[in-house]
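TA notes. Do not distribute before section.
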Amino acid sequence: MSEIADLIGQASAGKARAVVLIEGDEYLARTSARELAEAIVPSRERALNLIVLDAAAGAREIASHLVTVGMFAAPKVIVVEGADAFAEEVDAERELTRVRELWQARRQRDAARRLLKLVRPAGWGAADVALGSKTGASAAKWRKDVGAAPDESDKGWLRELSSWALAQNVVAPPDDLDVLVQAVERGLPPKTHLILVAESLPPKHPLVRLAQDKGAHVRRRAERRGRTIDTLDISPLVADELGPLKKRLARDAELELKNRLGDDLRLIASELRKLALYTGDRAQITREDVEAVVAPIREEEFFALAEAIGEGDVAKALQLFADELRRKANASAVALPFLGGVELGYNEFQAKLFPALETELSAKKQKVPHPFAAWLGYKRARRRPRASWRRALIRCAEVDFDLKNGADPRLSMERLLLEVCGK
């Protein structure tokens, strides 16, 4: 496994690898790909010899760029972002997020092709993706047929994308990954390089084998040693953003930053740059700086809280509640999700029960949980009798009433957690 710093050093010395696959967190992987590409292609030649594509362009179009000899003698690099699209099974939630980002970045063709490829197995076309229109599928149908559902806030741009794709006659690219693999295996033109960016690909995927055989495979990921946000390791990101500026991030400032922002690395990087400007000539960024500059936007990790309750782990539940108190100073904002019923396999649960749950919550304008998270909660609920969950729900209603009538939020919620966890 190569390190990105080594690859950039080799590229700067004129010894760049022909094929590089960078896997990991979207922000870190994409940033590393751009840095590597810029180390290969001189700045004066980048307008013509540095080409950035989304994988939605399709393997055939990417291959055509690779086999076309550069106009000048300088090195040529093709950067392919979102290579996860070439996996046989894709994460529908992640793909939908990527489509949203592409559309907001005004990369309409890439966004349309990527979305149409996502919905193609369901037999959908451009007209079907216009959420909320007469021809568009409902959110429940999205979840059932595609595996992910857009939010209500997505209606506007999805309708725009649908109309644009219909007007431009855009279709999903064919599944012809072999064309790309064969083009690389035959040998690329001199000084031509391929950089692939993906969050995650199966270990035996053709692109993984191709990178390992023809070049290098790199992972750029912020490791998380536990479930809570304080275990997220952002040291590589801090080094990238603050190292060149000769600044440091205090330990308590790092914890406060993660508590306020969560694990959105792109946002963390942006706030680090803002903090660097705010601190001026000071070498260290303190917790007070973070509190002064960074707005708290992270939502509490309700999945971890629900899991702690389901396992009866009162210590973890209280710790998560304390974390939320530090961030919001509002104990009554903590919600405890409870699920009950008989245990089902994930596929059966998703097919038979989840669409009804989604329809009910959508009608009430409540947030719909991810189906896999809901299923895990469903399984945990099976370990305790229904009577226990009925009592817990009653106590939740009673505490809710007490809070609305002036009861102490922290004391009430801590007592509730103790009772629900059976302590």
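Switch to the second chain here.
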Amino acid sequence: MRSIALSRSFLGRICICFIRAVLLVGTTLTPFEMAAQQTGTSKPLSSPPQSPPMAMHMGRATSLRELVQEAAEKNPQIAATFHSWQAARNVSKEVLALPETQVSVQQFSVGSPRPFAGYSNSEFAYVGFGVSQDIPYPGKRDLRAHVAEHEADIMEAQTDSVRRMVVGNLKMVYFRLAYFQQTLNVLQRSDELLNQVQQAAEARYRVGQGNQQDVLKAQLQHTKILQEIAHHHQEEGLLEVQIKQFLGRPQASPDIVTETLTARSLSFSAPELLQKASEQNPDVRSKQASIQQQESQVELARKNFRPDFNVQYNYQHTNGDTRDYYMATFGIRLPNRGRQKAELAEAQQNQERARREFDSESQRVLSEVQQQFVRAKTSEEQLKIYSDGLLPQSEAAFRSALSAYQSNRQDFESLLSSFLDVLNLDLDYRHELVEHESALAELERLTGVDVP
């Protein structure tokens, strides 16, 4: 990672040094060119230094599907919630079991505190053994198990929610990284077009048909492209850090090269997506399980009005001719009805709260699904407008403007405006592509569908 950071820092220093050189050349050439114009002669304008070569992304491109699989297996946040769910699955077995059995040993002395005092000469001294068992009212243990099972269902849904959240965030960052990596090629191509503009401006300046300002504007735009390249490298570095965090990789591991970003088509209708969200969204399922848990809790609160039981059995052995003693005890634990009424009221309020939370979460999810559907469809139309209209039209307009400028039939401002249209529309198209794919990724997270 240190070598990667050093290489990016070195590239940034190259860009800064080049920008300074361009500005120095522009300022030093100005007096000579002004003198040439005043004497009526035109001297060839020196070309600015060439931009440093752009860093190429070496290595095999990693597909998004591979990274999603890796995140599902190695992301620590997903692993933590998974173990929480596995732990919750055992709670139902705990509460379903009977309370612990109590075993007691008794020794009764007579005449002295010493152990077994009087055991040989008193019929009151004895050694005893006892067993005691609490037995809840029938049905209470099953209801406690149901409450615990629904809690495990909630944890399962939350585990799925965390997994989808991590995968969704990974997709968002991957799309942005693909944008910055691929727009470097756009900047490279735009820089080549700008070289044609600059050469045309210099050619006209040499023959006295242009002016120095046109050449300097072309150089300024060239410097702005270099600045944008440096910004792209910075954003790439930040996005690489986030992706490695999602994957659980060391930050010193090699950087990731993305695949070429292409537009996917959404084959699901809005009603289908809404139905899928209602059935498969983990946050909605979590709220459904919470309602079921609270319903079981209300039933358990009602059942707690019933008494619990306790059975005991004791055996006492004495010395001599005295017979052994056997004692069986059956006890009833009566509940405090005031406390149980408060417990029932609490459970009923929690049940109503769970229902309201389910309604709120369902409305939120369905609203978000509808928003992302509109966003995806609108973006799909925008991409078609870009690819079929704006991009080819801007290219044609630039070529026409360049030809007209070279033949002294158009001013430089119009040519530069056409060039900027080509550059900005290409960048806008790729940004819209990221927005489109991000909307599809959100729909996948919300509904559980897979958009190929």
